[in-house]
Amino acid sequence: MSQDTLVSALADLREEEALQIVQDKLATGENPLTILESCRKAVGIVGERFEKSEYFLPDLVMAGEILKEISELVKPKMAMVGEVKRVGKVVIGTVQGDIHDIGKDVVTFMLDANGFEVYDLGVDVPPQAFVEKIREVKPEVVGLSGLLTLAFDGMKATVDAITAAGLRNHVKIMIGGSQVDERIKEYTKADAYGSDAMAAVSLVKEWIGGT
Ligand code: B12
């Protein structure tokens, strides 16, 4: 019941109310993962409203900002729940040409909370920046996020650049984003795609272990 109030406050972009609900939930010891699940539902509703032209770009930006504020509130509690021996490294970013980062941030957040050391390169990341970061931190896994159709080429270019740099055998590559599927995995030559943040965590655990 109370979970619904967070979903609707966030979906309706009532910022102060949403933040207050989150603070109240955290104060009463609610599991941070339940709060994140409400956020995921709410952002889904925001996306549907945008597609039906009930919301416009500034509304999406607003939703993104509220979500980030909620993340800041929730994150310290996640650290308390599962502190943390780091069991492997993941380099992640939204590929070149694409600036969507809400989903990537959720994935980053969940990987971090599950004990992985995550290097987030941000958005609109050129292939070469992935290559340089891989050389620097030697991750086991690379995550490429992208929501635009255009991003599929950015993902492919990134995988190609990693291959050209001689690093392809050193990393597993996972891709994700609302329109990514098995076909896009084949096209980009990634190792796997994940449909949500928990799928990302499962893939990384499968590849490098972890609790
Ligand atoms: C919010 C949003 C925006 C916000 C982004 C804010 C931000 N900071 O990210 C703003 C307003 C900036 C925006 C801009 C644009 N957007 Co937009 N946007 C959306 C919207 C409504 C929701 C996306 C979202 O955040 N979803 C919620 C998150 C939690 O879900 P998610 O991203 O899918 O992530 C989950 C999974 O996919 C997965 N995942 C994500 N990344 C990864 C990575 C890995 C490795 C793994 C394993 C899993 C994984 O896990 C996540 C958590 O569960 C979508 C609609 C949609 N249905 O996707 C359109 C959408 C993606 N946008 C679209 C468009 C066209 C644009 C613009 C070009 C609009 C414009 N004319 O300017 C620009 C893009 C500019 C650019 N160069 O990138 C189109 C894309 C169409 C297409 N075929 O390419 C969509 C589909 C809307 C539509 N139906 O038209 N947008």
Question: Which helices and strands, and how do they pair?
Answer:
Blueprint: H1 2-11, H2 15-27, H3 32-51, H4 57-81, E1 89-94, H5 102-113, E2 117-120, H6 127-137, E3 141-145, H7 151-164, E4 172-176, H8 182-188, E5 192-193, H9 197-208
Parallel strand pairs: 1-2, 1-3, 3-4, 4-5
The structure holds cobalamin.
The site of cobalamin has 35 residues, from helix 3, helix 4, helix 5, strand 3 and strand 4.
Describe the structure.
This protein is α/β, with parallel strands linked by helices and 211 residues long. It contains 9 helices and 5 strands; from the N terminus they run ααααβαβαβαβαβα. Strand 4, helix 8 and strand 5 form a beta-alpha-beta unit. The radius of gyration is 17 Å and the shape is globular. The structure holds cobalamin. Cobalamin (B12) binds next to helix 3, helix 4, helix 5, strand 3 and strand 4.
